[in-house]
Amino acid sequence: MTSYTLPELLEIYHQPFNQLLFQAQSVHQKHFKDEVELCTLLSIKTGSCPEDCKYCPQSGHYKTNVEKEKLLPCNLIVARAKKAKEMGAKRFCMGAAWRNPPKSKMPELINIIQSIKDLGLETCMTLGMLTKEDSDKLAEAGLDYYNHNIDTSESYYPEIITTRTFSSRIETLKNVSSSGMKVCSGGILGMGETTEDRLEMLMMLASLDTPPASVPINKLIPVPGTPLGDELKMAKVDNFDFVRTIAVARILLPTSKVRLSAGRTEMNEEMQALCFMAGANSIFYGERLLTTANPDQNNDLKLLKKLGLGIESNMEAKAKRIDQIDDESLNVL
Ligand code: SAM
Ligand code: DTB
Ligand code: SF4
């Protein structure tokens, strides 16, 4: 349970930048090594989503350039997971543009989970809302994590999504926990929300009976065609505000992985280093997120090496060898 009130959190948030980073990094060092977790994403079902999330290029309510795809066949997903493992990913995260997974697809999803687990990777899926029955089935199949973001504060939520409620999001998170899977839940910064909204979102996550094992913090990727896609109209999140929010996430959720998620292509190395200093210790690793670009994998490995950050990876991975190789050979990893 979170023991901070909103005014207390605002005070933490607004303290001098160095003090905030010192506080966050002190919490971080108590609970974690200097390591970053690598998770690779794949969109296994793309576009035509019935939900109207204003940020999302996959919503069927907006006209975007996303190419729609039905659920990918298991062999293709496994091939992508093998590649991710070779590149050093620890977890394979699969996203589907559904309001909820259709009953008819459950056998296929179960087969996919088991096939990826057989590769020795951790598994995560994000498929929309889950009933307890669905989440029990996924947990029994061996799914380790379920991602379901609350995205913003409860009061700002209806400005962003009208086709579902904030409380339905919390309901799914409860189902996921009670089925024994680990919860991955976070949000997006840069949708016009206030600092208070950002902190309330983090307080809500910290107050869950089981706080999320991992908390993705995304920076809005404005995608043309979506209501939040017009870059000129959207106020960009200030970099220092972004770092401060990561620091508060680390302080409020001391044992959760905090994932620096969408938006890294717009961040230079120094900005990412500040986010790691504030307590981020996980990234999406691979050239694509779901439908948008992510930084080059070799550049990510180089950055971690420059910062002396280890890689929490699968044991046989090439990336594990990063300490033994010089910068030149990183280019051929
Ligand atoms: N349909 C499922 C759901 O909504 O839970 C899973 C897929 S959905 C694309 C996963 C998450 O991606 C969203 O909750 C949102 O936080 C993030 N996301 C989607 N579009 C984004 C964008 N343009 N910029 C940043 N994050 C985004
Ligand atoms: C999360 O919080 N961010 C990821 C993952 N969970 C599923 C998705 C980011 C999507 C960015 C837009 C896109 O690539 O379509
Ligand atoms: Fe659908 Fe998820 Fe995109 Fe919302 S965020 S439109 S639920 S794919």
TL;DR?
α3 (74-86) packs parallel to α4, α4 (106-118) runs parallel beside α5 (132-141) and α9 runs parallel beside α10 (269-278). The chain has helices at 6-14, 17-31, 74-86, 106-118, 132-141, 157-160, 166-178, 195-206, 239-252, 269-278, 297-306, 327-330, and strands at 35-45, 91-96, 122-126, 145-147, 182-184, 187-189, 214-219, 257-260, 282-284, 310-312. The chain starts with 5 loop residues before the first helix and ends with a helix.
Helix percent reads 25-40%
Number of domains: 1
Beta-strand percent range: 5-15%
> What CATH first level would be assigned?
Alpha Beta
* Low-pLDDT stretches: none
| Overall average residue pLDDT | 92
Number of strands: 10
Cα-based radius of gyration, to the nearest Å = 19 Å
Secondary-structure element string: HHEHEHEHEHHEEHEHEHEHEH
- Multimeric state of these chains? single chain
Q: Estimate the global geometry from the Cα principal axes.
A: globular
Distance between the termini: 43 Å
Let me know the largest β-sheet.
10 strands, parallel
Q: Remind me, CATH topology?
A: TIM Barrel
Q: Ligands bound here?
A: S-adenosylmethionine, 6-(5-methyl-2-OXO-imidazolidin-4-yl)-hexanoic acid, iron/sulfur cluster
